[in-house]
Amino acid sequence: MEKILELEDLKKYYPILGGVLRREMNSVKAVDGVDLDIYRGECLGVVGESGCGKTTAGKTIIRLHDPTSGNVYFYQKDGGAEVRIDIGSKKRSALKKLGIRGKLQMVFQDPTTSLDPRMLVKHIIAEPIKEQVSLGGRELEDRVVELLGLVGLTRDHLLRYPHEFSGGQRQRIAVARAIATDPEFIVLDEPTSALDVSVQSQILNLLKSLQETLNLTYLFVTHHLLVVKYISHRTAVMYLGKMVEIAHTEDIFSRPVHPYTHALLSGIPVPDVEHKQRRIVLSGDVPSPINPPYGCRFHPRCPFAVDRCRNEEPSLEDMENGHKVACHRKSEVEKLVRKKFGAQIQ
Amino acid sequence: MGTLLETVDLVTNFYTFEGVVKALNKVSLVLDHGSTFGLVGESGCGKSVTARSIMRIVQEPGRIEGGQVIVYLDEKNRQAGVDLLQKSEAYMEDLRGNQISMIFQEPNAALNPTMSIGDQVSESFLFHQKKEMCVKILEDFCAPGCRAFYPVKKFQQAVYRIAARDPEALALKMLDRLPILKLWRKKLKKEAKRRSIEIVGELGIPYPEQIVEQYPHNLSGGMKQRIVIAIALACRPMLLIADEATSNLDVTIQAQILELLRRLKEEVISSILLITHDLGVVAETCDRVGVMYAGNVVEVADVKDLFIKPLHPYTKALLDAVPKLSMEGSLKSIEGNVPNLIMPPPGCRFHPRCPHAMEICGKEAPDLIEIEGNHTAACHLF
Asked: What is the model's pLDDT at position A343?
C-alpha cells in the first residue's frame, strides 16, 4: 500500500503564558511525539479520552495548527510520479500554490457551530470551490447541486440557511463542504457525536459510501469505540499525547495488547444483553498534559505497572504484521489481564 | 415487588412563540421498588421532560396539563399512594432531594461555581435533616464527656432543645436577628459538613476532607459528577432519577460512574430511573426499559426481552442502527428525522418513518397494550 501521509515525531505544545512579561511559563503537551503512517484509501480511527490530543493531532496534520516540532510529509501525486512534501514547514501560501490545501479537508464536531449562520447553503459549499478554481455562476451552482446530491440533499435546499436544517442534515452540508475541493484526505473530528443514534448511522453510511466513490482517505477522530469498529480499517489508540497502540481494527478488538486498550474496550457499554464480561475499572483520571508522568504515561493508572514503567518510556514497537504497541510488558499483558480480571472480550 | 412510582397519562405542553409543543402525549410508566428502569429515546423525544414532570420542575413556558404522578412511598401499604400533581409546592420542596432526587446531565451546570463543594453538599442536609441534626447535637451537649464553658453550654442546650422540637420556631428566628447569638448555627453547619465529608468519602473520592474545601473548577469531570451524585444521595432517597448522568463523560470515567451507581443501588437507594440515549448503558444496568418516541412511550419490557425480541418497529430500527461489537455488514438507518412536536403526524407518530406502516396508522393512535407477559407495545401490528 502506498502512503499518503507520514508523521515523524510530531509535537504540538500550547504555551502557557504567565508573569508580568507574559513569558512562556510552561506548555500543554497536547501532542507529544507521534509517529504514524497513513495509507491511501484507508480509514484510520483515532480513539482516546477527551484531552488526550486526538483533535489537536488531526488539526496539526492538515496544518490548521503549526507543529511545534516534527515533520508531516504529504505524498502528492504529480502526474505519474509521487512527490514527498513536508507540509509542516512550508509556508501557507506555498501550500496553496502547490494545491495541497484543497487536498486536505476537515469536518468538525458540531455542525451547528461550524456552519456560518448568516450564509446560505449555496454560499457555504461554494466558498471552498471559489478559493481553488474560478467558475462561472451557473457552473458553480451546478457543481454545488452535484455535491448536494452526493450527500443526499437536493436543489431545493440551495437557498436555505443552516438553522432551517436538522442536525443530521447540517452535518451532511458540512461533509459536502469538505468534499467540494476534491480532497484526498479528510480529518473527521467526531462527526457523529452531536447526533442522535438513528441519524448517526445515516451519516456513517454516507461517509462509508463517499469513501468508496471518491477514493478518500479518512482520519476518523472519535471517543466512541463501536463507531470506530464500524467504519475504520486501522485503529490508533492515543493516551496523553502519545500513540499507545496501532493495529488493524479487528486485531485491536480481538487481540488488544496495551493495558489501556484493554480497559477502554472493557469499558464500552455494549447494547447486547447476552454479552457479559468483567469490567476493568481504571482508578483516577487522565493526568494533566502540562506535566505528564515520567516514564510510561499510563503507569499511575496501570494495574500492571512495574519499576521499569516508572523510569523508562516505552517506544512504539512492531509486534507482528503492523500491530504496534508501546508497552514494556506487552508480551505478558494478555496473561496478566486473564489472571486479574478473568476472560476478556470474545 | 410493589410499585414505587406510577405515571398515568401524563401530558406536558410547552407554549412557545411558534406554537404549542406537545412534549408528552399521555405517558404512562410503572416503576417498581428495587428496580432500575431505563428510559431511552432520541433527543427531543421527551425523556427529560418526563423526569422533570415527575419532579414538577418543568421550566417555563412548559406546563403539566393532565395525568397523575402517583408515588407509593410505603412499600407495604398500597393504599397510601400520593398524587404529586395535586400536592402543594411546599410538599414537593420537602420531597425533592429527600425521597426523590435527581442527577442532571451537565455537572458543570448543576454545581454552583461560587460555592465550595462542602457547602453545596451540606445544603441538602441543612434543608431536609435539620431536625435530626439538632437532636444529634443536643445529645452531644448532654453527653457527660462534653467540655464547654458552662454558661455557653447551658445556652446552647436550651437553643438546641427548641430547635430539636421545631427547627422553624419563632424564638430561633428572633435569635438569628441578634449579632452574637446567631452563632448558635455554627454547630449545625459543622455537623452538616461532617455528614457531607462522610457521604463524599462513601462515594469513593480520595481525601474527602480536602475535597469539600475546594470549588467545582478544581475538580475533573468525573469527580464533579460524583459530587452531584453525593448531593443527590445525601438524604438517602427512595428514588434516584439520573438524567443522562454519564453521557458527557469518557469511556473509562463512565465505567467508574456506572459501577458506582450499581454499588449504590445495592446498598443505599431502592430504585433508579435512568434516562439515557445510550442503549449500551441500558443493556448493562437496567432491569426494565421503556422506549420513547416523539412524546409517546412505544414499548416497555424487561431488558432481556427488549434486546432479544423487540416488538415495536421503532425499537427494532433503533437496535439495528447502533454499531455493535459482534457485527458484520452495514448499519441500517432509520430514514427521515424525528418529527416536529408542534405539528406531530396524525395517528401513530412513527408512521412516516415506519417500514410496516398501514392505512390505519395514519388515522388512529395505537394504545399501549400488553402483548406477552410484562411486555407492552403501542403498535397496530399487534
From this structure: 57
Asked if A273 lies within 8 A of B303 by C-beta distance, the reply is yes
Closest CA to A178 of A211, A223, A224, A140: A211
Q: How many residues does chain B have?
A: 382
Q: Which of A52, A272, A278 to mutate to test the interface with B (most CBs of B within 10 A)?
A: A272
Nearest-Cα residue of chain B relative to residue A270: B280
> What is the distance between the alpha carbons of residues B281 and B39, in angstroms, rounded to a whole number?
11
Phi, psi (5° rounding) for residue B43? -70, 145
Nearest-CB residue to A49 (from B42, B251, B258): B251
Mean pLDDT of A6-21: 90
How far from each other are the two terminal CA atoms of chain B, in whole angstroms?
28
If one counts every other C-beta atom within 10 angstroms of the C-beta of residue B335, the result is: 12
Task: Report the alpha-carbon distance of residue B167 to residue A289 in Å, rounded.
Answer: 50
pLDDT at A178 exceeding the cut of 60: yes
Q: Extract the runs of DSSP E, i.e. beta strands, from A177-288.
A: 185-189, 217-222, 234-239, 242-248
Other Cβ atoms less than 10 A from the Cβ of B162: the count is 17
User: What per-residue confidence (pLDDT) applies to A150?
Assistant: 92
Separate counts of helices (H) and strands (E) for chain A: 12, 12
Average pLDDT of the residues in B8-16: 90
Separation between Cα atoms, residue B56 and residue B89, nearest integer Å: 9
Residue A198: which of B250, B317, B330 has the nearest Cβ?
B317
User: What stretch of H or E contains B268?
Assistant: none
In 3D, which of B256, B253, B299 has the Cα closest to residue B279?
B299
- ∠ CA A157-A163-A167, rounded to 5°: 85
Please compute the mean of the pLDDT values over residues A165-187 and round it to a whole number: 91
Question: What whole-number distance in Å separates Cα of residue B22 and Cα of residue B294?
Answer: 9
All residues of chain A having their beta carbon less than 8 Å from the beta carbon of residue B42 are 196-199
DSSP assignments along B277-328, one per residue: S-HHHHHHH-SEEEEEETTEEEEEEEHHHHHHS--SHHHHHHHHTS--TT--
Q: Could you tell me which residues of chain A have a Cβ less than 8 Å from any Cβ in chain B? A: 49-50, 166, 168-169, 196-202, 204-205, 208, 223, 225-227, 229-230, 253, 263-264, 266-275, 279-282, 285-286, 345-346
Tell me which residue in B283, B318, B337 faces A168 most closely, judged by beta carbons: B337
Spatial distance between the Cα atoms of A261 and A253, rounded to a whole number of angstroms = 9
pLDDT in tens, A269-321: 777 766 666 677 787 777 888 888 888 999 988 888 889 989 988 988 888 88
Separation between Cα atoms, residue A131 and residue A101, nearest integer Å? 10
Residue entry with cell 506555498: A94
Q: Do A273 and B338 touch (CB under 8 A)?
A: no
Q: Which residue among B250, B279, B337 places its CB closest to the CB of A49?
A: B250
Task: Please name which of B232, B328, B234, B324 lies closest in space to residue B278, comparing C-alpha atoms.
Answer: B324
Cis peptide before B352 (omega within 30 of 0): no
pLDDT above 50: residue A346: no
User: Is residue A247 predicted with pLDDT exceeding 90?
Assistant: yes
Please enumerate in sequence order all residues whose Cβ is within 8 A of that of B188, keeping only pairs 6 or more positions apart, or say none: B126, B130, B133, B134, B137, B163
**Judging by beta carbons within 10 Å of its beta carbon (0-12, 13-18, 19+), is residue A73 exposed, middle or buried?**
middle
Q: What is the Cα–Cα distance from A112 to A234, expressed in whole angstroms? A: 29
CA A208 to CA A199: how far, in whole Å? 14
As a whole number, the mean pLDDT across chain B is: 86
The reply to whether residue B252 touches residue A223, judged by beta carbons under 8 angstroms, is no
